[in-house]
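#struct-queue
[09:14] JT: dropping the first one here, sequence first, then the structure tokens:
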Amino acid sequence: MKKIIILCTITLAILLTNCEDFLDIRQEATLPTTGIDYTKSENIFLSVSASYAKLRSWGAHVFPYIGAFEIASDNADKGSTPGDNPTMQELDNLTYQSTNGLINDLWKGYYDIVSGANYSIHQMPLFVDALLNNEDKTYALQCQGEVKTIRAYAYFNLTRLFGRVPIVDTILTSEQLADLEQATTAELYNFIEKDLEEAIAVLPSAYSNDWAGRITKYTAMAIKAKVHLYQSEWDSVASLTDKIIASGRFGLLEDFRAVFSLDGENTKESLFEIQSSTLGKSSGDQTYIEYAYVQGPRGNSPANLQGWGFCTPSQNLINFYAARGEVIRPATTLLYRGTKTPEGDSIKA
């Protein structure tokens, strides 16, 4: 009996000890104070890179994004087969309701970017306080500027898509998130502009080639110019874009087709270009990104030259080019079955 009591006591102690890992959960809407060493500069970019990664999410920049920003316009049709994805057809016909899954994916995708950005933005002061080197402190503030640009970009698209939306600029609990109110259009644009102004003040003009694609002050300026454009604030648009041009860092490529090829990656035309990598997990002809694949020619071969067939050029766009006597744009924008791409790849008839 004594052995049984001792055994039960030991078992209970082990169970209670193991439960600590499950019970010691970080309080909601708080930043971690353990597990991250804020005194090490190499940890600064970890949360920033997560914000960049969210920009390539399905909801924010793949299928729903193509539907809302291109297929819903006069430039493109749904494509694919007639019965494929009725929710996308609703976007094309402008007959969608609030229950449309693609609309909900957009909402969740962009607020996921906002949530991750808020987390990173509020982490940076912890690094600034803990770091001893002034150069590292400056780097932390630059990283914060990058993420503020990402948050501003997300809110700009949310505003364009949904109009008045709630502003979330901190880390909130589930209860607080459920109790948010819509911001006015003026409040939203002021918030977006403030994020971008603060980013411009701390971001560098350029990075080394090892950090190609990272957000610079000119990225933030370009987004801010577009924000002013949507408010018909022409003087602000001209001022910002003139500064970008005067920097001498940007310009148009001589070969328009290169913009859409590997040769066009991170060139002088690029102000904001999210990077992608195989991470050593895949290579060769099968390597692709979702954004391109969902728009690839349906039923084509080989595998790297096919896709779902969505987002096909509309007759309206074709007629527009013809009426203007365009030559270069149709040749580089429109792809017909039974022809070859400028690179010589065949598209099945």
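[09:21] JT: and here's the second one, same format:
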Amino acid sequence: IFSRPLDGKGRPKPDEYVMSAGDRVEIYRPLLIDPKAARLDRAKKDSSR
């Protein structure tokens, strides 16, 4: 997880911020498939039924 970008929703950069109890951190990972392509695939699958 240390190589992933972090975000604290409007807080300073992670390397400049000291975490406190109750702070929320989001760890992002790359998408496996484009969301638009996934929707199109599902629509095609549903229309063929």
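[09:30] RK: nice, looked through the second one.
[09:31] RK: The two ends are 41 Å apart (CA to CA).
[09:31] JT: good to know. Helices lie at 35-47.
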